[in-house]
Amino acid sequence: MKATLFILAVSWASTCLAGLPVDLPFTLDHNRLTLDVELCRPNGSRRKARAWLDTGSPGLQLAEPLAREMGLQIPAFGPEGRGAPSTSPAPVILAGGVALDVDGSPVQVQPNGEVRAGVQAEVTLPARVFRNFRMTLDYPARRLRLSLPGGGDRGGAAIPCRVHPDTGMVQVAVTLGGEKVQLAVDTGSAGTWISRSLVDRHSEWPAATGAAGSANFFGFAFEAEGRLVRIPELHLGPMNLGSVGALGLDQRIFDGYSRKTAAPVSGFIGGNILKNFRVEIDPVAQMSWWTPASGRAAEPFDMVGLTLRPLPGGGLMVAGVVQKDGRPCVEGVQPGDHLLQVDSLKVTGASMGEAVQALRGRPGEVRTLLLERDGKPHTVRAKIATLI
Q1: How far apart are CA 22 and CA 33, in angstroms?
Q2: β strands within 77-119, DSSP E
Q3: Is the whole-model pTM more than 0.85?
Q4: pLDDT tens across 53-102, in order?
């Protein structure tokens, strides 16, 4: 595999990697990383767009309006409004003036102005477009650096990784609950998800039922049934990452995910962990280097316990109410309610990160929720609780 990646890297570097290294600023919302890129129109002019860097995705995605502007074939969408593959080749995409490796990448078109409800971006950049770069994700500094692969150790704990030669997806070995398991490194995920089989072997871990905070991605039906846990210790090489919140889900989800990785995984490391590190990944060397931020702390799960589903065009729907010790953490809220306001924050127009942050606070504090059910508004005063 290393030889394959080396040949790809040499071929790509000889034609497209002039101008490296480049440093690009990025922003975080709900622990998801977005940055500015440029796409080349058919007439050669450039169009700036906001891109979501999702190393858990194997393919390129464009929002429909942007895809039309780029001259892509627009597919017929299904009845549920899901994205569909385009027969057109990927447009040229530049990051800091450097062409990303889109050659041969599948392209999916999403039928809205954003690539996914809840993510404020028109493009999804998958892992494969970075597979020939040495990529540094400096979360504390909010900077992305792309450079040529190879070179010396640049500091941090050296952690071997495996990189799929086609998808570019990265995985590392971690130890949790005394077990060594493989987890993918997923910049597109707000939090960390792991196999429910691992969770069920540790009844001593603080737990609740239902996704909240960083464990709440898009309000999928299975999120409301997941086991929210706090892992007391998670070890990556010589580092103890400390107390980590995670959502335990059916291993079959990760069996499907493993079709994109170099070897089977039991989950993935998400933004709730990554945001505390400077992570450098060299796909050719199959190595990564992790430097922790100073003063990093465990993510609190003191909040109003709701699982939220972002809606196309803005707004949030309640997908579930977190249960603890067999009882709902919030009374008076039902799945299907539309969340309109949290205290003074109007949710329509707010980002997913802003809405989740508004639900956080100190245990015992009260948040006033304005909801809509069956077209009628109603108000709930919800207490913040320690979920895990």
Answers
A1: 17
A2: 84-85, 93-95, 98-99, 107-110
A3: yes
A4: 999 997 999 999 999 999 999 999 987 778 999 999 999 999 999 999 99
pLDDT digits (tens, 9 = 90+) for 88-135: 999 999 999 999 999 989 999 999 899 999 999 999 999 999 999 999
| Gap between the Cα atoms of 46 and 51, Å rounded | 15
Find the radius of gyration of the CA atoms of the chain: 21
CATH topology of domain 302-386: Pdz3 Domain (2.30.42)
Intrachain domains 2-134 and 157-292 with the same fold: yes
Of 1, 14, 237, 34, nearest to 118 by C-alpha is: 34
- b/e string for 40-63 if b means 16 or more Cβ within 10 A? eeeeeeeeebbbbbbbbbbbbbbb
Tokens representing 201 are 């072997």
CA-based torsion, 356, 182, 243, 203: positive or negative: positive
How far apart are alpha carbons 44 and 63 in whole angstroms? 20
Mapped onto helix, strand or coil, the DSSP state of residue 7 is helix
How is 188-228 classified by DSSP, letter by letter?
T-SSEEEEHHHHTT-TTS-EEES--GGG-SS--GGGGGSEE
Q: Using CA atoms, how far apart are residues 343 and 21, in angstroms rounded to an integer? A: 45
Summarised one tens digit per residue, pLDDT across range 188-231 is 999 999 999 999 999 999 999 999 999 999 999 999 999 999 99
Are the CB atoms for 267 and 215 separated by under 8 Å?
no
The reply to whether CATH 3.40.50.300 applies to domain 157-292 is no
Q: Looking at the predicted structure, is the pLDDT value of residue 286 above 80? A: yes
Q: What residues does each domain of the chain span?
A: 2-134, 157-292, 302-386
Give which of 209, 210, 207, 192 is closest to 319, Cα–Cα.
210
Place of tokens 């702390």: 297
The residues, ordered by sequence, that sit 6+ positions from 56 with a Cβ below 8 Å of its Cβ are 127, 169, 184, 186, 187, 188, 189, 257, 268
**pLDDT tens, residue by residue, 140-191:** 999 999 999 987 557 899 999 999 999 999 999 999 999 999 999 999 999 9
2-134: CATH topology: Cathepsin D, subunit A; domain 1 (2.40.70)
Residue of 372, 307, 219, 388 lying closest to 380 (CA atoms):
372
